[in-house]
Amino acid sequence: MAYDGNRDFGGGYDDSYDDRPEFRDGFRDLQPLEPGFDTTNYVPDVVRTFVVYLYRHIREKNVYEIHQMYEGSFQKLSDRLFKQSKWPAVEMIAPYVENDHVFCLLYKEMWFRHVYARLQPTLEQRCDSWDNYCNLFQVILHGNVNMQLPNQWLWDMVDEFIYQFQSFCQYRAKLKQKTDQELAVLREIDEVWNVVGVLNYLQALIEKSMILQILEEEKDGNVTFTATDGYDYHGGTNVLKVLGYFSIVGLLRVHCLLGDYHSGLRALSPIDINQPGVFNTVIGCQITTIYYYGFANLMLRRYVDSIKSFNQILLYIFKTKQYHQRSSQYDQILKKNEQIDEAMFDELFSYACPKFITPSPPNYDEPLINFNQDAYRLQLKLFLSEVRQQQLLSSIRSFLKLYTTISIAKLASFMDVDEPTLRVALLTYKHKTHVINYDGTVLSNADVDFYVDDDMIHIADTKVTKRFGDYFIRHIQKFDEIVNELDRTQLE
Amino acid sequence: MGPMPGAQAPQQIFTIEQLVALNPYNPDILPDLESYVEEQVATQTYSLDCNLCLLRLYQFQPARMNVHIIIKILVKALMALPATDFSLCMFLIPERLQMEETFLTLATLAHFLETSRFREFWDEANRNRDILEVVPGFEQAIQGYAIHVLSITYQRLPRTLFAEAINVEGLSLDKVLEHQVNNNGWALEKGGKVVVLPLNEDNQPVLRRNTADSIPLEHVAKILPVLV
């Protein structure tokens, strides 16, 4: 690989940062700095070398190395040296990387992310982080960056961008604990983490990268994007394209946070989540995509789509066994078919829903109340009213399962309601279980369906499970493959 | 040579739909979207995406919110039933605003329609004609929705129920039924006492029953080599 002989990186070091002697035993010899030590102004040697190597790898486009350093070394150093403190300020490390503008922006991005993760960001830091993102995105959009960065990092950028936006909205809405000084500053900085700005950046990334055209052309086979996981093997850059792609998911997320589920799903439409795509390459992205897709469908009453996507991601999580906490969360959502009363719905929804935000700045002249809960409360209220509307339906369903025909009078007496109420409930059942697709066709997602002939209800159990046969066949085949493989390895 | 198109209205080069598609997060298009709502009301057209875009922009800048426009959007959304447009719009309207009387009324009306309580709906609608008359075509749209729900549920239903659902009686009801019989394949039985709805996929679920546990031959063929 290209190596600039004029640079002296010290003799005898391998190209891989993590293979260096002091790191092989996992930084055990590193002394954590004393608490209270001002970490921002002192650059320990390991940090200096980290920065130098990272800069070099970025310049030489060694994506694998970058990924190792970004995922591994950065975390290790944070844990050992900067557990509760900040990394050295960018001005301190800039001399080691030739004051490279783009690298400094990237370093600051990681710097702020560390602050958000380990410490409580101050208002000033929030504003600075916003400025940094603006600068970084400006450079990527209008400059000609010729880098290849790992998809994990690019996803984290988009993810963190939205997370900090969310965090700022929550922070801004908690008016009660603010000092007068903070309020004064907030009044001034209208455009910092402004929702329109955030949305426009995401939109700009999508447009400038022309990712929509790329995804379209890919279907015709003219362009390879997904096949190479977004990376460019011809010496080009993947940054803008992949950022554009992840911004599609970002838009879905922001729309859901604002309560606009329809537009969120519309934004996601270029990506077919049933096909393997670049969003599969980063697990965080995959989970986020499926979660928000499923949640949006849930709020739109498209329960079949929602359940399908949640199932998909639950299976995946279960197989990878990394995120046990969150898998139980989805499990609970899927159990809503059973006889649960309203309080349970309230609890489940509150536990599982995204952190909704109020995007507009508050009116600072009104009495200071905390209104960060407003957006969430509204969504909860609407969800619960939907639940209430569907309350009779589960008991109807259980009765209908028992019969092939039953008269309206009889069913009404079973359910202890009068006939008109029952008729109304039957109509509601039909209405709620029939969904209008985007192209206007009506689709039923009920597993127990019926029709009414004057006074008699005729029931048809539509979804008979014929799945067992397929299931067994698939597994027999798989097992056979495994056995054959074992046979082969024994022979060798 | 006709008039030059550029000279007439240089700002109207893009239609509203295009504006929303290209530049949905730009607060400057807010006035255009508002006038488009008025246009939808006047010409009995409807565009969910544009209205959602407007509600979003109101969310970002609550100071510019125009309550009358929002009410019109909500009424239009009600007319779009059985689509879930009304709920979608409600998600974007702040809770404080939803506590106002007109909004409470609209929410109640929506609730009645979602739970198919047509009689209560029409009673409430009659009490609030002033809100609903602003948007022409409201009554027909709701009647269309009622007919839709009835068609997917019933094969035959008593005439009285039908009358209650679409809020039409006497001679006008006869006319409606006649229209449906002639154009949509309806029929009347028992001297007009029972309305027979055309069979469609939804009120005839028997047709969709899957046969139990039949496995196609190809699948079985796949495992034959293993079994042998």
UniProtKB/TrEMBL annotation, chain A:
Identify the Pfam families for this entry: Paf67
Stretch forming the signal peptide:
none
Main location per UniProt?
A: cytoplasm
**What biological-process GO terms show up in the record?**
formation of cytoplasmic translation initiation complex
The record's section on InterPro entries has: eIF3l
UniProt keywords (A-Z) are: Cytoplasm, Initiation factor, Protein biosynthesis
Q: What subcellular locations does the record give?
A: Cytoplasm
A cellular component term, taken from the record's GO annotations: eukaryotic 43S preinitiation complex
Query: Is Protein biosynthesis a UniProt keyword of this protein?
Result: yes
Q: Which domain of life is it from?
A: Eukaryota
GO terms for MF: translation initiation factor activity
| Protein's job | Component of the eukaryotic translation initiation factor 3 (eIF-3) complex, which is involved in protein synthesis of a specialized repertoire of mRNAs and, together with other initiation factors, stimulates binding of mRNA and methionyl-tRNAi to the 40S ribosome. The eIF-3 complex specifically targets and initiates translation of a subset of mRNAs involved in cell proliferation.
Quaternary structure note? Component of the eukaryotic translation initiation factor 3 (eIF-3) complex.
Family, per the entry?
Belongs to the eIF-3 subunit L family.
Q: What is this protein called?
A: Eukaryotic translation initiation factor 3 subunit L
> What is the protein's species of origin?
Physcomitrium patens (Spreading-leaved earth moss)
Phylogenetic classification of the source organism: Eukaryota, Viridiplantae, Streptophyta, Embryophyta, Bryophyta
UniProtKB/TrEMBL annotation, chain B:
Q: Which domain of life is it from?
A: Eukaryota
Pfam families linked: CSN8_PSD8_EIF3K (PF10075)
State the SUPFAM superfamilies in the record.
ARM repeat, Winged helix' DNA-binding domain
User: Which keywords accompany this UniProt record?
Assistant: Cytoplasm, Initiation factor, Protein biosynthesis
Recorded GO MF terms: ribosome binding; RNA binding; translation initiation factor activity
User: Where is it found, in Gene Ontology cellular component terms?
Assistant: eukaryotic 43S preinitiation complex; eukaryotic 48S preinitiation complex; eukaryotic translation initiation factor 3 complex
Q: Where in the cell is it found?
A: Cytoplasm
Q: What is its main location?
A: cytoplasm
Q: Which InterPro entries has this protein been placed in? A: ARM-type_fold, CSN8_PSD8_EIF3K, eIF3k, Transl_init_fac_sub12_N_euk, WH-like_DNA-bd_sf, WH_DNA-bd_sf
Domain CSN8/PSMD8/EIF3K intervals: 68-196
What is a biological process (GO) this protein takes part in? formation of cytoplasmic translation initiation complex
Of which family is this protein a member? Belongs to the eIF-3 subunit K family.
Q: How does it assemble?
A: Component of the eukaryotic translation initiation factor 3 (eIF-3) complex.
> Which PANTHER family does the record match to this protein?
EUKARYOTIC TRANSLATION INITIATION FACTOR 3 SUBUNIT 11, EUKARYOTIC TRANSLATION INITIATION FACTOR 3 SUBUNIT K
Q: What does this protein do?
A: Component of the eukaryotic translation initiation factor 3 (eIF-3) complex, which is involved in protein synthesis of a specialized repertoire of mRNAs and, together with other initiation factors, stimulates binding of mRNA and methionyl-tRNAi to the 40S ribosome. The eIF-3 complex specifically targets and initiates translation of a subset of mRNAs involved in cell proliferation.
Q: Which HAMAP family match?
A: eIF3k
* Protein name from the UniProt record: Eukaryotic translation initiation factor 3 subunit K
The organism encoding this protein is Physcomitrium patens (Spreading-leaved earth moss)
Q: Which gene encodes it?
A: LOC112295620
